[in-house]
Amino acid sequence: IRNKENLGFAKGCNQGAQVAKGEILLFLNNDTEVQVGWLESMLEVLKDKKTAIAGSKLLFPDGLVQHAGVAISNDHIPRPIYYREGADRPYVNKRREFKAVTAACMAINKEVFKEVRGFDEKYINGMEDVDLCLKVFHEGYKVIYCPQSVVVHHESISSGRHDKDIKNMDIFLEKWGSEVPNEQKYYKEDGRSWFYKKDKELVNKYYNIYYDRKPLLLQVPGYLYRIFHKFMTGLILFIKFDFKELKIRLTSK
């Protein structure tokens, strides 16, 4: 298939799905590096007839987590869970059900894809994958995160990737704004501390794409928290680095 212009992710994928002949559709971004066993792991998950979608564990080039499932936050905005955490953490390597996974690397049963009418083409390079997953989820199928399928993703290199973020989110929230949040459920299941859960809640509140739309006075608490959060993040990294250096010195003596 060759188009004269970039039609966007949703339209392009729908075009490909129309001519695909297999039972399983695989969507894979062009800025990815697949790792050994990535495809076999996804296909194994899809052997369960109740499962319609399988999503990979995505890593940044530095090895930190980019995607380990998508959860709905308390502000009803979907976000990748455990973003930029270590890839070896136990809770990142649990195969389990989510309401959504990213389509940067996603396998889906073709008949189910057709049943829910594919990607919604109102979205332009954003949120169409979460929308698709929610449609599938509400049809009674499972959406499974498969950590055994590992893909390195050089995220958002394409030009104009985030130009329509706010419009896409408006479309999403109009359609799915009543979706029950489930992010905290996973933190509880994984035994995360109250401080961790509260920090995530505040980060989501003050770092979302709508925050700068608020009147300036209402932005003050968020800016103060952003400064505090960045300071604490830097302090933790400094302590970790300093402790590592101390450990090396003690070991070398």
From TrEMBL:
| Record domain Glycosyltransferase 2-like: where | 1-115
Molecular function GO terms recorded: transferase activity
In its UniProt entry, the species of origin is given as candidate division WS5 bacterium
Q: Does the keyword Transferase apply?
A: yes
Q: Which SUPFAM superfamilies match?
A: Nucleotide-diphospho-sugar transferases
Protein's recorded name: Glycosyltransferase
Q: Which UniProt keywords apply?
A: Transferase
UniProt xrefs under InterPro entries = Glyco_trans_2-like, Nucleotide-diphossugar_trans
